[in-house]
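go over whats below:
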Amino acid sequence: MKVSFIIPVLNEEKTLASTLDSLVAVDYPNKEIILAVCDLNGVSGKIAESYAKKYPFIKTVNNITGNTAIGRNICIEHSSGELLMNYSGHVLAERNLLSLLVGKLKSMPDDVASVGCSNIFPDK
């Protein structure tokens, strides 16, 4: 089962690299990361683009509105996963995040959803 991380990005320059590093390290091979970036030429956009160039499963798309909800919808339009993981550019993923969640979701009714995260704080 492919999982698509959908991440709207606006002014995440302090945390985005750490978030993407944690997502790259997730021990689930069938994943993609879709980043809807407000300003592709800004600092966050440059960080996102550098990861997209390095990892073929990371894609950047433009979100000219900067609106989070619109950014999530843009990500969904560009995703190809059977499962969507609503995520943020300031959250760290545990390495086993998807292997645990996908395993649990496969054993549950189709109308079950799950949420979980660990926040990071750029000033600490």
